[in-house]
Amino acid sequence: MLVAMKNPVKQADSETETTVAPDDRSPEQLATPASEPPHTPLEAQSDSPWLPLKNPVFRTFWLASLVSNLGTWMHEIGAGWLMTQLDASPQMVSAVRTSMALPIMLLAIPAGVLADRMDRRKLLIGTQLMLLCVTGTLAWLTAMGWITAWGLLGLTFLIGLGLTLHVPTWQASVPEWVPRSQLSRAVALGSISFNLARGVGPALAGLLVAWLGSWIAFSFNAASFAAVIIALLVWKRDRVESSRGQSFQQSLFEGLHYAFSCVAMRHVLLRLLFFVAPASALWGLLPLIVKQRLDWGADGFGVLVACIGGGAIIGARLMPELHRWLGADKAVTMAMTLFAIGMTLMSVTTDRTINVVATLIMGMGWMITLTSLNTAAQLSLPDRLRARGMSCYLTMMAFSMATGSLLWGMLADGTSIATAQKIAATTVLVTAAIGLKLSIISTPEPS
Q1: Model pLDDT for residues 367-381, shown as the tens digit of each residue
Q2: What is the rounded CA–CA span in Å between residue 340 and residue 429?
Q3: CB-side exposure of 393: number of CA atoms within 13 Å?
Q4: Max CA-CA distance within the chain?
Q5: Distance (Å, rounded) from C-alpha 391 to C-alpha 256?
Q6: For a designed S-S bond to 380, which of 98, 185, 199, 442 qualifies (C-beta 3.0 to 4.6 A apart)?
Q7: Which residues contact 1 (CB under 8 A, 6 or more apart)?
């Protein structure tokens, strides 16, 4: 049974609201306030990766997030496969992911400002209720046989709108659930939750969609939001921070100025663009790869996405050692190279076994790259700018995913799926090499 949870992270102003005035400090000074210890580099954190789970607040939210992520991945399978039945053109199939990413790309930064100005708990509850209603509507329309291709895209856009408000608010709340010294491990555990769900959700969805139809995946996703709502209802925040001493516009520009003035954060955003834009070919084209190149059904789609999740779990286990061995910058380059190798394997053969191995490899590369970049972004951000800074991160990721998926779909339509995959893999290799010039480490490495 869930009980009311008090935040174990000691706050300076318990049960009070702090109004923050504009700050003229440099991004580097903002990132390391005098009241906080210096950041620990990614490579230097050697404690158990599971340490944050000893924290009851974080553990509750981690478990709730795991259930929600399971629903999200089941939804991904259901939506992608449903579009292949409604309209199997590469552009329309890839547009499913684009329609979800588009509102994040356009509105994540204003959403981050709201998250830094409002009670994050109330904002999260509101977004979860919205997502429950929209996905429930999608499940009902699909079950009744009334859904159309454009209707699917429209409701997917609304889901993306809810996620636009939810994700930066959720990520900005993580430092309230764990001590700062455990932040990078908490971020990594969040990625593990996401990828555990990716390992189980698609396989389960593939079986259920093949048996009952896509509506069952949407129904599970709608129900999964209740787990997060319950966790949020019993969470008792110790404080509420806001930027209400500033206007909305001032808060917006302060966040943008920080994100692009801090060298480490700017490099994170560039490397995110360099990876996600070409790597989005995997997600935009995977339903077509399964259906047209591999002649596999919804169960096969679930198997390959589950393999990506399995590879991501392996990557999460190997990532700390890889960071200690190579450092975060070179680890990201190696992970991008792994992803490109997997993409190349998929492009040259229709053998299902080799494609399974390829997706495992790509899952490892995807996990290590994005978790490293996400952690580096979190460590470069001061708490009071965290939602705005992470909204810049999400905007860049959504922009890269939306435009990339659409462009790879158009290229596959004009040439072939295999050709688009080969070009995407080559692009990942080139940008991996360029990224070596862009360090994501926000503090000097220990001697």
Answers
A1: 899 988 988 888 888
A2: 6
A3: 27
A4: 64
A5: 10
A6: 442
A7: none
Rounded to whole angstroms, the Cα distance separating 368 from 318 reads: 9
The pLDDT-based confidence of 54 (bands split at 50, 70, 90) is: confident
Query: 406 vs 285, 301, 420, CA distance in Å?
Result: 10, 20, 12
Q: Which amino acid is at 225?
A: F
Residue 47 CA: distances (Å) to CA of 9, 44, 195, 313, 419: 18, 9, 21, 19, 44
Which residue, 231, 234, 252, is CA-closest to 243?
252
Cβ pair 91, 410 in contact under 8 A: yes
pLDDT attached to residue 405: 82
Tokens of 42: 């990614």
Query: Domain 54-435: which topology?
Result: Growth Hormone; Chain: A; (1.20.1250)
Position 239 scores a pLDDT of 59
All residues at 6 or more sequence positions from 349 whose CB lies less than 8 Å from its CB, including other chains: 355
Tens of pLDDT, residues 389-420: 888 898 898 889 878 888 898 899 889 999 99
DSSP state of 19: E
Residue 199 has a pLDDT of 66
CA end-to-end span of the chain, whole Å?
A: 47
C-beta neighbour count of 5 within 10 angstroms:
19
pLDDT, position 34: 38
What is the sign of the dihedral through the CA atoms of 103, 290, 220 and 62?
Answer: negative
pLDDT per residue as tens digits for the range 221-246: 999 998 899 999 988 876 555 555 67
Q: Which residue is it, tokens 């380059």?
A: 333
Rounded CA gap, 315 and 306, in Å? Answer: 14
Distance CA 368, CA 321 (A): 11
Phi-psi region of 295 (alpha: psi -120 to 50; beta: other; left: phi over 0): left
- Give the residue extent of every domain in the chain: 54-435
Residue 19 neighbours by CB distance under 10 Å: 10
Q: Which of 224, 67, 217 is nearest to 143 (CA)?
A: 217
Query: At 17, is the secondary structure helix, strand, or coil?
Result: strand
Residue 399 in tokens: 């922009």
- Provide the pLDDT for residue 229: 92
Which one has a higher pLDDT value, 342 or 89? 342
Distance CA 190, CA 307 (A): 19
Q: Which tokens belong to 386? A: 């965290």
For the chain, the average pLDDT equals 81
Tens digits of residue pLDDT in 273-300: 999 999 999 988 998 899 889 988 877 8
